[in-house]
Amino acid sequence: MKTFKLLLLLQVLFFSTSVSLAQPLKPRPDAFPPVPESKDAKAVQMATTIAEMAGWDRYPTYDTYVAMMNRWVEQYPSLCRLDTIGTSVNGRLILCMVIRGGNAGNNPEFFYSSTMHGDEVTGYAMMLHLIDTLLSGYGSNQQYTDLINSVDIYINPLSNPDGTYFLGDNTVRGSIRYNARFVDLNRNYPDPFGTEPLDEEQPENTAMIAYFTNHSFLLSANLHGGSEVMNYPWDSFSSSQRPHPDREWWIDVCKRFVDTCRMYSSNCFRDVNSEGYIAGGDWYVIPNGRQDYVNYYHNCREMTMEISSVKTLSSDKLPSYWRFLQNSLVNYIAEIIAIAPVEPVAIHDADPQTIGQNCHITLYPNPAGNRVFLSESLPMESVLYNAFGAEVLRLPARQKVIDITSLPAGLYLLRCGDYSTKLFKR
Predict the structure, then answer these.
(1) What is the predicted pLDDT for the residue at 136?
(2) How far is 221 from 110, CA to CA, in rounded Å?
(3) 346-425 adopts what CATH topology?
(4) Would you identify the CATH topology of the domain 36-339?
(5) Per-residue pLDDT for 345 more than 50?
(6) Residues contacting 317, CB < 8 A, separation 6+
(7) Does the first or last residue of the chain, that is N or C, have fewer Cβ atoms within 10 Å of its Cβ?
(8) What pLDDT score was predicted for residue 28?
(9) How many Cβ atoms are within 10 Å of 214's Cβ, its own excluded?
């Protein structure tokens, strides 16, 4: 034990030194050791009934949370259902509200998840408020109606209930970052870049991995607290080392999110940098995080949203945070429309005149094993890139089969002329 404490002290000293000398940004609350937060005099009010949540200025007790999720299903049976993703170490439910409109099952799937660090509870409250806003606005608010009819929306408000309700089901005061086994869930995912987790896979993450595997989410976000910044992938590398192939797209999305928030609160998203967004590894490199795992293994664009500078926000401040976050949270769901493929996944020729006809090529299967088949021959030389943007295969014109046996599992981008499509190898 003394040896462990000495090592931890050395890590603290090294972390403090490296941040002050080499990293002028605000320390990442996701770093190790975690950045501590004062537990003094916060106005943390709890709601013991659904009625007490009416003003959205309280946190629900665990039983109230479960009751709210079930009440929405009772009120809007044609619009939503309640999934149980799994259970925590202590048997608490990891719930997900599924909101689907008239075209259910044929729409792209979107996923919001929050509070995998149990003491970062602002996102927990925001996700509950978002569920209520979308459901109650269906049919009266055209934006919400169109969104629910066009996207299958999955919202998991609380992914680490044991950490949030560490002192019992009736309070979030005293919540902790870790799960009941004192494991950081955001260091416990399979790492696509080879780092082994310090601890065996925890049940909360095993359940979440299975949920991702059983769905086809195209876009997602994981909500945290402790800073206010949009954190896009990769977390495992700085952008100068290995920029994410969708980096420019991520920057555009982040700008829209932050700019919309600043229409309602000009001071928000400024505590890390002036832009309000950053590549995760440029802030602080972390291994075994959920963001990189989801992006790499599940053909899903996920980002980390740090939405409150305080981890456990005073409950009386929740309505003001909702006011500046509401439209951005809704608009982020709509970003999926621009990236959702038209089934089947296809490449369209960039210039029909060069080959005499409009070429429509489908890839199957996708995800694939060792070979990918094309419905028509490639009209021109094409290139397959890996997730880092490096060329891995150059394909001649007229090719109809792509052999990917030698390639590792993961996400790839097939570019044909000015057009491209994603390919995922199992």
Answers:
(1) 98
(2) 9
(3) Immunoglobulin-like (2.60.40)
(4) Aminopeptidase (3.40.630)
(5) no
(6) none
(7) N
(8) 78
(9) 9
